[in-house]
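Usage example:
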Amino acid sequence: MSYETNKEISRRKFLMKVGVGIGSVAAAAVAIPVIGALLAPLLEKKQQVWRTVGKLDDFTIGGTTLVKFLNVDPVQYAGVTAKTAAWLRRDSDNRFTAFAANCTHLGCPVRWEQNAQLFMCPCHGGVYYKDGSVAAGPPPKELTQYPVRIYNGEVQILTSPLPITNINASHT
Amino acid sequence: MNVFKKIWRWFDDRSGITENIVPLIKHPVPPDSKWAYVFGSATLFCFILQVVTGIGLAFLYQPSSEEAYKSLVFITHQAKLGRLLRGIHYFGASGMIILAGIHMLRVYITASYKYPREMSWISGIFLLFFTIMMGFTGQLLRWDSNGVWSSVVAAQQLGRVPLIGKYLARLLIGGDTIGGQSLSRFFAMHVFIFPGLIFLFVGYHLYLVFRNGISEPPRAGHMIDPATYRRWYKNMLKEKGVPFWPNAAWRDAIFSSCIILIIIVLAFVFGPPELTEPPDPSLVHTTPRPDWFLLPVFALFALMPPKIESYIIFIGPILTIIFLLAFPFISNKGERSPLKRPWAVFGGICVVVFVLSLLMIGEQSPWSPNFATQGITVNGIGLKKQSAEIQQGVQLFYAKGCQYCHSIKQYGGKTGPDLTTVGRRITPDQITMRIVNGSNDMPAYGGMLKKEELQALVAFLSSQK
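Running the assembly step on the lines above writes:
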């Protein structure tokens, strides 16, 4: 060891640095596609499309019906998970309201109770009036609404992301 | 020398079994570390059981949003011994969570997290967190309606994180909505990411046992002093230590084997939890519930004051983890005996009672409307020859959903007060007020009842004395 010159030491230091450098490049090159797979849902911009959920005449005025439609562009192997449900209420001749089926508390599926005229959640007892406003229980805000339109005599709902309640949702 | 001995000598020389491995197995341990010390190894054996049965299930499982449920039905009802295999994996998960909890409690009660074993406690907290994540993602992989809606609930919880909540929720379910990509992500977490992390942390956790030794059973008055402890411990082992194998290990072996046998018997007798409906997010008439070990959290969400809930969902888990990690830094020396740490023991008991109470009330979940309740008839509640108005009230009590939340006699839900004797407690006017105006926990029915319907309901309820 004592024969080593300063030149040899600095050479080894240099080679060590090259080794670490190349290793980091290799590690980064591997990590990028893996992290890409992890973050893919944030990187892709999903379109929204209008889905027909029935003919205008299928819905009675004042009634609330469960409608089902396909998400936008589901993958081939999605099977039944490609579907989303909404509660569609016909307010008047040409006015509809589409409520997301997800409770705003923690996302459980609310069910419409026709006789009671209430939406009820089975998980933690959230209740909503027929207009989607909170009637009782823990939900911090009213039921989310999906855009809905009448097109060529058909009722259409705009595919939308799963409604996520954020921390600022005021409690009513 | 026979040939097998020769082969062994050669193998041993080249591998260093006698030189390096045997001393590890025979490392000295404190002599009186007895049955209280078996829970950690039993947790580890449960984990190994989970790895082995998990591999078995992987032979049969289809990790695809479309096919997973069908393969679960196949495993549970058709595959040879599939029901038993799923059952062992389920009860093994339960065992691992319970034993990890007991192990942690034992370490807390005997203050084994104090010097020099702080990192054992910290890595243990991580292992507990990973174990719970394994339990949760495992429940999702069943991919029935419970699995689908539980993942929605988890996405909602992540959604409460300020600023980035929406993105975290999207990352969890793999897109804007539940879909084909969701299950693949849960599969990657349950089968690769968290088991990998557990292997890593278990390795470190065990390495620390060799580095610092297992804690000796605490003795009141024996103070831990970081300046002298290591020297004292080394001398104590030199004087009184016994080899881990076989003097202490036989207890671990017996206890762990019994646990595994109990798990197999439970799996054989009770089988795995039955599947709920298919994973179709448009089937909304379903009642999602987590597996038992997450019921305390489920109960907490129902019972927390709604005004602070969104904040607690976000900050609660962070504070809990910080609090647990802080233990060895709050106090890492002095007494270890529970007899000399009464407040620490009291605090521990409070936490256990709190969690068990939440578990028990979560099991009953009285806050959930009782959708299964059947309409009561006038005769069913002991009222005969009643007026037409009261009979109409009885019908309305069910039809308007009152009975989902209120009981009369034993019929109905438990969300709201029992109304069996409501006519004795409050006047008809008060009943009318409550129905019309509702409260925080009850809808205001004013706009939803016709005048005669309201009168009929009040007449019926006032007659309940």
